[in-house]
Amino acid sequence: MAVVGDQAARLLGISRVEDAPAVFSKGQSYTVVGVLGGMRREQRLSTAELPPSTTAGDRLGLRNVTHVLINTSLGAAQQVARQAPIAPAPGHQDSLTVVTPADLSKPHGTGGRPARAFVTSARGVLGPPRRG
After folding, report:
1. Which of 11, 41, 45, 63 is most buried when burial is the number of CB atoms within 10 A of its CB?
2. Is the full-model pTM beyond 0.70?
3. 104 in a domain, yes or no?
4. Are 81 and 75 in contact (CB under 8 A)?
5. Residue 65 CB neighbour total at 10 angstroms
6. How many domains does the chain have?
7. Distances (CA, A) of 50 to 29, 78, 84, 85, 102
8. What is the C-alpha to C-alpha distance for residues 14 and 47, in angstroms, rounded to an integer?
9. Residue 49 included in any domain
């Protein structure tokens, strides 16, 4: 099985996965189980065929995952960072390095007043209100 990027699906004429379309890579057939779209950061994936990591290792000779990028909703990055290493390296998740952005859901250095700090900083950027 494999997931293909939305542009690859378009080029191959795949509009639905319910009919079990297949793609071929190095002479091996893979059933398309999903189409990945909406990639803003990693646009090159829109033309890719993505087999599971075990298949990539066994059949295609790809051994090491060197980079994983996960987009999250605001405030979810910390939890996803705790859980994400388990999937690519079950039992060895401590061997992976996870880098997360700062947790923006909690106030930092504002004495617990994030809204006031935002308004104060916005005033500095926008300037004082006009009079008259």
Report:
1. 45
2. no
3. no
4. no
5. 13
6. 1
7. 13, 26, 18, 19, 30
8. 13
9. yes
Confidence of residue 123 (pLDDT cuts 50, 70, 90): very low
Residue 32 has pLDDT above 60, yes or no: yes
Please give the angle made by the CA atoms of 48, 54 and 58, to the nearest 5 degrees: 95
21 is a domain residue: yes
Helices (H), the chain: 6-12, 53-60, 77-83, 114-126
Per-residue model confidence (pLDDT) at position 21: 94
Closest CA to 48 of 104, 5, 103: 5
Domain that holds residue 23: 2-95
Please give the share of the chain, as a percent, with pLDDT higher than 70: 73
Q: Is residue 118 situated within a structural domain?
A: no
Instruction: Decide: residue 8, CB within 10 A, 0-12 exposed, 13-18 middle, 19+ buried.
Output: buried
